[in-house]
Design brief:
about 450 residues, mainly alpha, Growth Hormone, Chain: A, two-stranded antiparallel sheet, 17 helices, 2 strands, about 80% helix, globular
Amino acid sequence: MKKLQKGDKKLLNAWAFYDWANSVYTLTIASSIFPIFYGALFSSEDELVSAFGLEMKPTVLISIVTAFTFLVVAILSPILSGIADYVGNKKNFMKFFCYLGSIGCIGLYFFNRDYIHLSMLFYFMGLMGYWGSLVFYNSYLPDIAFPEQQDSISAKGFSFGYIGSVLLLILNLAMVMKPDWFGFDISVPQNILDNGSEADIILKAKEIKNAASFEAMKISFITVGLWWIIFSQYTFYILPKGVSSGHKVNKDVVFNGFRELKVVWKQLQNNLRLKLYLRAFFVFSMAVQTIMLMAVYFGEKEISWADKDQKTTGLIISILVIQVVAILGAVLTSKASSKFGNIKTLIVINVFWMFLCFYAYFMETPFQFYIAAGLVGFVMGGVQSLARSTYSKFLPETEDTTSYFSFYDVAEKIGIVIGMTIFAVVDQISTMRYAILFLFVFFFIGIILLFRVPKEEVSE
């Protein structure tokens, strides 16, 4: 195929389309159906789970495994990005993590509390695959788009992701809520119909439907893995392989990424604007990502739902609300950044997140949770797309974009490790409410740091 030039519309759309492919992971696995499925496995309020030689709350276990996964990604990404930069083939590394994550999603079908360590391995694979592929996906942005295109195409990518993930979630929701539409047998056995009381028949019918819905949740994990693999192929077909160097990997290359991070760190000392922005990003992203990763677990445990059916329906509807509103939020944020500037817009968004931490501490009813979902959606897409494009615009003139985005991703991952660890500790010793409230501090610090970012590039 003829090589497309930087800024080409087809190339930009192919890049953005990867969000369509992989965002189903964040919606179904990270944000909605898997947390509901996980909560159903540990239904007792006071139940503890044994894993890795410790007794802990189920929500603490998932927080710890999530934090550990991000730690592994933070360590591996500079090594792999260094190798990718050396051999000039970042696409193959992006593919590897894409397929690793997809297989992990499919493996979640076998998630079982009796085999908790193997189950958590599949969860680890999915999470690592998603974030690992983003290291290389993000690094493509300055290579394919000119600075004036980056805000809009970044927002377009997120919009693609929200639309695609909502479509699949609607299918998954239909499977969970109406399993009989998809061939699941929810009929009550004839002997119970003949001999059971009306109450027995109603109870049995509910048990059978719940079991079918539970199985539908597991099948939804397979649909995520397949969707991710299939739709990523267009992106892989169009995106360039990279600048081939002809070099082969040797032992000296393994730590190339860390050496490149060190170079980036030194270069940051002479780029005050980029350095101060990264400090702010590190702090506020820590809180944003922790909330996004734990929001549905919070809703599953802390909101007073009438029954399990209302809980399942309510949580998934709230996620749909988040995704739909996030499309609007990403577009409006892009327009606001064009008019008022990226930093001012990020400050306003962080103030909004700070307010949400207080609101979450006090909310108890499903209606209050729906309101929170709408508010989160409005700022979720905006903060992610704008943070990514702001960093891209602040980069100095360089062809080594992979190293800079590797630094960006390592900072983000280490922030998530810290945020999830703090969340787990506070959750274990108190409640998730206090854990969410505590994140207010990080948004407040992030706002202060954003105010310190100069309007123009300044050298130290």
